[in-house]
User: Fold this.
Amino acid sequence: MNKKTKIITICGSLKFKNKMMEMAIKLELEGNIVLTPIYPITDDNVYNKKEIIMLEKMHKEKINLSDAIFVVNVDGYIGESTKSEIEYAKEHNKEIIYLE
Assistant:
């Protein structure tokens, strides 16, 4: 029996980007469509204020397209940006799935 395919947006601190990518692969292999944040190419990749605002806006648009968000909260850590994404998802009646 096939489960319904969900569109899921990955949320979490970019300090956990390897775990976020790992979970994106796992969720896709389970038959979901996964939307991810933009990951910096290098650790010293710096965005200006305008770019940061645009990336945050686009991430919220990904949440709008989604059925659910998957919060990568390693050791229970949830930063301020992720907290705001969770609140945004709640306001828009999205399912919220936590790693931990």
About this structure: The mean pLDDT is 92.
